[in-house]
What we know:
alpha+beta, 268 residues
Amino acid sequence: xxxxxxxxxxxxxxxxxxxxxxxxxxxxxxxxxxxxxxxxxxxxxxxxxxxxxxxxxxxxxxxxxxxxxxxxxxxxxxxxxxxxxxxxxxxxxxxxxxxxxxxxxxxxxxxxxxxxxxxxxxxxxxxxxxxxxxxxxxxxxxxxxxxxxxxxxxxxxxxxxxxxxxxxxxxxxxxxxxxxxxxxxxxxxxxxxxxxxxxxxxxxxxxxxxxxxxxxxxxxxxxxxxxxxxxxxxxxxxxxxxxxxxxxxxxxxxxxxxxxxxxxxxxx
Length: 268
């Protein structure tokens, strides 16, 4: 897939930056894999031209042969659990750099058999192709998004390919961070635990960065890259904790702020 102009990457980068800010706001304090997947769908609808889209999510501690289908219904998202017998961990994925895949289906016929219903839905709406984003955690599926396209050339309009690559890779960090938090039993929604959890996640980021520097000093660039990738994943959890702390602080300050201006009149 070739880019048609030099100005388009700047356009996709700027749009992806705005989309990521929107994505973080939509996720909110409930920093879970399912919340991140839903936020991805809502963000794509907000920043892309109208196009049919579906999402799938595999929450942690969920049966691997079952997935949750996410469908946009007005301002909300409808979730339905369904069988996914084709589940398998991609054992060849050795690092997070292998965990994001963007696939252009030039024909709807190339969509997997288990997504035949999506193929039929797109065809009924006059669409002839689709683009698919797959986000994993070291080979384990977390979230897949399928967007219907009028034709394969639509991937080049306004550098849609570049936008999806940037937005998808950055969203992957948040999804993997949420997955780590949930699998380790971290409750990111309990206000009383947030200060200590934020400190723990921050120290974890520092440890991974120190480990990366050690690998560089020992001329082990591959290990250094792996440590940096893990640091970016943990940093996304730390960011979510910081955002939640800000929300908690504002909520605690709100009653005090509302009392200003209603004190007794000292001149009276």
